[in-house]
Request: fold
Amino acid sequence: MWLPIFFSPSEGSQAAGRQFLERIRARTKDRDVPISEATVAAHLAAAHEWGAAAPDSFDYLKRIPHPALVVNGSNDVVVPTINSYILQQNLPNAELIRFPDSNHGSHFQFTELFNRYVTDFVDR
Reply:
């Protein structure tokens, strides 16, 4: 499930996905409890409701003064990449990072670069 959702179909992205899975599987202690079917259903219901545009939502975003780092893959199949552009354009103090040849797991595909961006963002 992880490879087609988090990583693009390209050979390089799929290889990064396999490395990501190896990192996850390497941890054998203190792992998270598996998610129940009820939790998955609740998440999907909440995401569906959250995804509906609210009246004046862009006006609301424009009133948020806090710095925001928006991160997305170049072809996110979960949260369409265009939504990240829209978010960044409507948050007055937002920066957008769009990683190439990646889907929803771009931060797992470009882990070191992502960590540098986040560290720089938080340190400012």
